[in-house]
Design goal:
single chain; alpha+beta; two-stranded antiparallel ribbon; 1 helix; globular
Length: about 100
């Protein structure tokens, strides 16, 4: 089933849930925004902090355009960054 012509449904193998991605409506906008981003989950909040330190130390070499501070919510932590192509990513300790 497809509700919108610009939507994409992807099943995660470990859960019955689906990820829905609706493309931005800007005509020249070919990348993901900070609200429509790729998400990578790591093992723990400590791993998020270590990843952030690595991103911060290598920001110029890795050509990271934007790097937001780590945010913590209880036992979960995350941060956002923008890549060279203008896509946004989230590194999080949250579990599905």
């Amino acid at each position: 089933m497809k509700l919108w012509p610009s939507s994409c449904y992807v099943k995660h193998s470990a859960t019955p849930w689906y990820v829905v991605c609706i493309q931005a409506l800007k005509p020249n906008h070919q990348h993901l925004s900070r609200y429509q981003r790729f998400t990578l989950s790591v093992a723990s909040a400590d791993a998020v902090h270590k990843a952030y330190q690595s991103f911060e130390a290598n920001r110029r070499a890795w050509r990271i355009k934007d790097l937001e501070k780590v945010e913590a919510n209880g036992e979960e932590s995350s941060f956002l960054f923008g890549d060279l192509n203008g896509n946004w990513w989230e590194i999080t300790s949250a579990r599905a």
